[in-house]
Amino acid sequence: MKLHEYQAKELLARYGVPVPRNAGAVADSCHAFEAALNLGGKAVLKAQVHTGGRGKAGGIRIVRTPEEAEQTAASMLGMILKTHQAPEGIRVERLLVEEPISVESEIYIGIVPDRASQCHTLIVSSMGGMDIEAVADEHPEAVARERIHPALGLRTYQARRACYACGIPHSIAGAVASVIMSVFKAYTELDADLLEINPLAVVTGGSLVAADAKLSVDDNALFRHPELAAYRSEAAEDPIEAEAQRRGIQYVKLDGTIGVMGNGAGLVMATLDEVARAGGRAANFLDVGGGARAESVRNSLEMVLMNPNVRGVLINIFGGITRCDEVARGVLDAITGMDLPVPIVVRLAGTRADEGARLLADSPLVTADTMQEAASRVVALAG
Amino acid sequence: MSILVDAGTRVLVQGITGREGSFHTGEMLAYGTRVVAGVVPGRGGSITADGVPVYDTVRHAVDETAANASIVFVPGPFAADAILEAADAGLGLVVAITDGIPVHDMISILPVVRQSGTRVIGPNCPGVISPPHCKLGIMPGNVFTAGPVGVVSRSGTLTYEIVDELTRAGLGQSTCVGIGGDPIIGTSFLETLQLFEADPETRAVVLIGEIGGSDEETAAEYIPQMSKPVVSFIGGRSAPTGKRMGHAGAIVSGRVGTAAGKVAALTAAGSPVAETTHEVASLVAAALAGRSG
Fold first, then answer.
1. What are the Cα distances from residue A256, in Å, to A49, A71, A88, A381?
2. Residue B1 lies in a domain
3. Residue A10 lies in a domain
4. Least C-beta-crowded within 10 Å: which of A251, B30, B73, B207?
């Protein structure tokens, strides 16, 4: 679960990570007026969307008075923010209102699980405010890494060593190390799978403040974080993905026109690739899950069709323990009484695939023998 | 011969009375797997409908039945503890089917599990099968047939799809290993390739990878040292950056984990990479013919 900046800052503050004085997130312009008033008039309005490059796209604006905050908020809320990371654009629903800070220099702090070493890893850079991968390429000396022991956790000497190694000045290294330890505590206790402070701003006078924060909590660990449940509905960005989450379906929205569903994540990924090879673009990723029973097929088909961009659907099922004739009956059950708004191509393979195909022969569904054939048919039918 | 499991594997099922655990115990027994015990805390002393004795602890089950491998169906919140219990009881192999184990849990237990000499396969995997002797997993047994091809994969159904085509093409399998779709897993592609290299029965290997992480790239560095051909397939070529495609581990983060990077590494290592699932079987046939001819 990706959290918004305002949610991340609220949580980090509880762990003692310094954050800018703020008036929380607002969803309408009158609240922006009040929020700016509470901060003394001058404020920064920051669009709460899951993408980098907000500033360049007009998603961060400085205002000098509550009136200006109200006007600016009215123009920002509801706008479609297009960034290099999200070229299709994301609708702005909320703005974080916080005090402006005068930044002298910027530091990067990140903690992630490193897959290769199978340890959590701390990354610190004296060149914050930029894409950390780019800094690592161009200025490797400005980036330090520390592998975190699975049982001992991050030790203070490691935090200090990382600061010295990447060239953070002595005058603030101790204070940065102490922020790092608080960040690690938050990362551990929140079951994060990504926690980034970029930048940790060094403000005039030398004090530190987390100007931006990115936090993602492991979905598989949410069971032990009931306190985060309230954040969940606000964290989701796409309404269809939010609905899929409620139904317990693995659904990822994509920007094409071919709805895709299948059983098993790997098979669905391969199906998306076939759609691309056939010259189409998938509208979504959807894993029906094991079994592919009538109810889950119907549920999934409804989800796929919720996206108004969908002009054709490809159902790709490999029958294993669940036989293809059972799956075919499930698909037929699922579409009974349903008004099919777009062509649907079904491809069944594996156990009793021929029997399955025969059952579908008299239905309005189009059948295909291979994934490749199914992909080219659905792309052709969707036009 | 095969790797990891064979006719001598004595299986213990952790979470045998749950919906998945009980169903797949029946399927494993029907395949011919020797399921000798089940473990469910609080259910010790009972016997399942399939006639498998149930114990409260893994240690007791091992003492009584000499089980040497376990399969874990325990739900995500408790699964890491179940894997540790199996390692603590001295089992050599633990196959973790469970999907949804927290990353922090896996990172904290794996070093301890390795220290006790236990190999973990998974989690979030379909398991291991050495046809026709032993199925320690949830895969449909009828798709598999005995033969010279080793298969190692991060996914379930995609593997069945490819194995089905191998079987139809007359290319049977020595062992198929599902290493799992999570970011932190017990056994890597590299370790599985090393096992296949040492197995006299395996003459070619199929590696089925996907976007996310760099496990395929690491395995690619070893491929030139192998005496056996490795044919690959990479799923997720069209997947966008930053979106998790079903598997917790299937995500391109920044520049790490792209399909293009994996395809390039494998190709450079001399492994033919199939463009479509359909091409895998013919590439394997060609590789086998090339080596023997």
1. 21, 35, 11, 14
2. no
3. no
4. B30
Last residue of a domain, one of A98, A116, A139: A98
Distance of alpha carbon A300 from the chain centroid:
21
In tens, the pLDDT along B84-96 reads: 999 999 999 999 9
Tell me how close the Cα of A310 comes to any Cα of chain B, in angstroms. Answer: 18
- Taking only the tens place, the pLDDT of each residue in B184-242 is 999 999 999 999 999 999 999 999 999 999 999 999 999 999 999 999 999 999 998 88
> By residue range, what is the domain housing residue B285?
140-292
Is residue A1 one of the residues assigned to a domain? no
Is A3 a member of any domain? no
Q: Give me the pLDDT at residue A233, please.
A: 66
The closest CB to that of A118, out of B102, B184, B246, belongs to B184
- pLDDT tens-digit series, residues B122-167: 999 999 999 999 999 999 999 999 999 999 999 999 999 999 999 9
Q: Is the same domain home to B231 and B155?
A: yes
Q: Do B245 and A285 touch (CB under 8 A)?
A: yes
Tokens of B204: 């070619």
Are A269 and A151 in the same domain?
A: no
Q: Per-block average pLDDT, block size 10, for chain A (383 residues)?
A: 93 96 91 94 93 85 95 94 82 93 94 95 94 89 96 97 97 97 98 96 93 94 91 74 84 94 94 96 90 77 92 92 83 83 92 88 90 96 90
Q: Which domain holds residue A82?
A: 21-98
Burial A275-292 (b: 16+ CB within 10 A, else e): bbbbebbbbbbbbbbbeb
Same domain, B193 and B255: yes
The answer to whether the CB atoms of A350 and B143 lie below 8 A apart is yes
Residue B197 resides in a domain: yes
The pLDDT value given to residue B256? 86
Exposure string (b/e) for B210-248, b if CB count within 10 Å is 16 or more? bbbbebbbebbebbeebebbbbbbbbbbbbeeeebbbbb
- A291 token code pair: 């079994």
Tell me if B210 and A273 make a contact (CB, 8 A cut-off). no
Which residue does chain A place closest to B235, by CA atoms? A270
Q: So which residues of A are the catalytic ones?
A: 108, 196
A115 contact residues in B (CB cutoff 8 A): 183-184, 212-215, 249
Q: Does A13 reside within a domain?
A: no
> Which residue type is seen at B171?
L
Q: How many domains does chain A have?
A: 3
- CB pair distance less than 8 Å for A115 and B104: no
Q: Are residues A307 and A331 located together in one domain of the fold?
A: yes
Task: Give the type of residue at A256.
Answer: G
